[in-house]
Predict the 3D structure of the following.
Amino acid sequence: MRVVKTAEERKNEILDVAEQLFAEKGFDNASTNDIINRIGIARGTLYHHFKSKEEILDAIVERMTRTGIARAKAIVSDKKVPILDRLTGAILALNINTEAGAEVFEQIHKPQNALLHQKMEDRLLSGVVPIIAELIEEGNKAGMFDSKYPEEAAEMIMLYSNTVFDERSDHTPEVVARKAMAFIHHTERILGAKEKSLESAIMNIIVQ
């Protein structure tokens, strides 16, 4: 008997298979025909949900971003875990450590996908900044931080980290190490934290 799937189920199936194929073949070498053949659907079914391979990539990026933000929120909400551990966990939750994730990030860094890259960064910032700001406010109350503008501090830290630790940079290990220590120093200043109080937590993020 033929299984009838809802529109949402079918869309996620297409995205799941596209992710697999992008990881296996690379975005440029994987085709919509590959996706259609692996799922076993009609071409019209695919184009009913997505008009192009680029639109599929856009949807994958949106789904990855949404999933990462949801994981970060879940980590931050667990008040039994120390604040710095939650800060580390929330930021690590945004990393996509899979072959498909690596291929997607390779694509969004290409010049022709600059708009998609910007959309992803904007979506991450709008979703993550309130989460990090919540932790900063909690740190203020606990006497760990002294930040008068938690939301702006969170935004500054996220923007700074995106620029300094771009995985596509060609910095030498020595330059990366210096930038890491500078990032820790300035983050402590932004948060009004004691010197070196964030070093261990932030290094856990950097060495991932």
Remarks:
- The CA atoms of residues 16 and 60 lie 9 Å apart.
- Residues 114-142 form the longest helix (29 residues).
